[in-house]
């Protein structure tokens, strides 16, 4: 184990092989399912989501390898699991940002958004990419294995996580504002189409659920790195699985059940049932006319 200080450790516990194998399997299966859904429905904005799932699976492979190396862990294996598990949620977030843009497009609700829909996805994805690059570069700096590089990499990762939390919090604010305004004054398209009225609400609630899961996970990671290498959270493996692995797997399951392909189908092909209002027409003489379909 390469480091400058005998008090510095890559792991402060022996990584669990069983836990790692379980989540390798779960994330791999979820990623295969999402890949199938993506290809079958051609929902291309889910590509980052699928890549994030594979990052999670490979990251836990790295932890499984680490469980066989105790106590002489390789820096390369440690960084593999550290970086991939760390940045995967940023890829999930990219798809979530794009999905809100499609909800606004589907409902013809641009007037209810505090950000122009043409810029909404670009702004949030740009922030997400910046956060991703900071976290990945921080993990790369940690690869040298020295105490100094580990501390530098940690600080860069913390900066990336702060950016991720800020952008995600703003995103939730944008989504909630849009939802409230649409509830108070539905667009004509939502009023005219019962299918759209149901679908957009189902998907925005799904976004809320996923956003909460990712926010909790990101705050956990922020606190974990903030406590340092000898902190309580990073010294107990159970927290990684409870506040990262479980939450991110739940995010993948949530989007497998309520998949964004439904939005794509409606945006591209139009809606299903249209609410038809029956209007009775009377002539000026008081003679009852025919009903409009």
Word description of this protein:
There is one protein chain. By secondary structure, this protein is an all-alpha fold. The protein has a single domain (17-291), classed as Rhopdopsin 7-helix transmembrane proteins, CATH 1.20.1070.10. The protein has nine helices and two strands. A hairpin with a 5-residue loop joins β1 (280-282) and β2 (288-291). α2 runs antiparallel to α3 (75-107), α3 packs antiparallel against α7 (194-227) and α4 packs antiparallel against α5 (147-184). Keywords: Membrane, Transmembrane, Transmembrane helix. It is found in: Membrane.
Summarize the structure.
The chain is mainly α.
The residue ranges in which pLDDT falls below 50 over 5 or more consecutive positions are: 1-6, 271-293
Distance between the termini: 77 Å
Coarse morphology: elongated
The sequence of SSEs as H and E is: HHHHHHHHHEE
- CATH topology (level 3) name: Rhopdopsin 7-helix transmembrane proteins
Roughly what percent helix?
Answer: over 70%
Count of alpha and pi helical runs: 9
Q: How big a fraction of the residues is strand? A: under 5%
Q: Which sequence of strands runs across the widest sheet?
A: 1-2
Record field, number of beta strands: 2
Element layout with pairings:
Blueprint: H1 17-41, H2 47-67, H3 75-107, H4 117-141, H5 147-184, H6 188-192, H7 194-227, H8 237-257, H9 261-269, E1 280-282, E2 288-291
Antiparallel strand pairs: 1-2
Helix pairs in contact: 1-2, 1-8, 2-3, 3-4, 3-5, 3-7, 3-9, 4-5, 5-7, 7-8
Protein traits:
single chain, 293 residues, mainly alpha, Rhopdopsin 7-helix transmembrane proteins, two-stranded antiparallel sheet, 72% helix, elongated, disordered N terminus, disordered C terminus, transmembrane helix, RTA1, RTA1 like protein, membrane
């Amino acid at each position: 184990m390469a480091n400058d200080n005998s008090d510095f450790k890559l792991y402060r516990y022996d990584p669990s092989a069983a836990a790692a194998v379980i989540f390798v399997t779960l994330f791999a299966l979820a990623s295969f399912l999402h890949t199938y859904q993506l290809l079958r429905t051609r929902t291309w904005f889910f590509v980052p989501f699928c890549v994030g799932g594979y990052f999670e699976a490979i990251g836990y492979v790295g932890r499984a390898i680490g469980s066989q190396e105790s106590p002489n862990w390789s820096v390369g294996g440690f960084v593999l699991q550290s970086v991939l598990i760390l940045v995967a949620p940023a890829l999930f977030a990219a798809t979530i940002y794009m999905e809100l843009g499609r909800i606004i497009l589907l409902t013809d609700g641009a007037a209810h958004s505090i950000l122009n829909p043409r810029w909404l996805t670009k702004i949030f994805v740009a922030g997400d990419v910046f956060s991703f690059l900071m976290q990945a570069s921080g993990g790369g700096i940690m690869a040298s294995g020295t105490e100094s590089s580990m501390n530098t990499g940690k600080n860069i990762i913390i900066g990336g996580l702060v950016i991720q939390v800020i952008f995600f919090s703003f995103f939730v604010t944008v989504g909630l504002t849009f939802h409230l305004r649409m509830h108070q004054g539905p667009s004509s398209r939502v009023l005219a189409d019962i299918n759209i009225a149901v679908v957009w609400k189902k998907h925005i609630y799904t976004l809320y659920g996923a956003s909460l899961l990712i926010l909790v996970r990101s705050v956990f990671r922020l606190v974990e790195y903030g406590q340092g290498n000898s902190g309580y959270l990073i010294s107990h493996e159970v927290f990684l699985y409870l506040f990262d692995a479980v939450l991110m797997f739940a995010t993948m399951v949530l989007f497998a059940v309520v998949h964004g392909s439904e939005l794509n189908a409606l945006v591209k092909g139009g809606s299903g049932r249209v609410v038809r209002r029956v209007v009775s027409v009377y002539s000026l003489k008081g003679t009852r006319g025919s009903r409009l379909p």
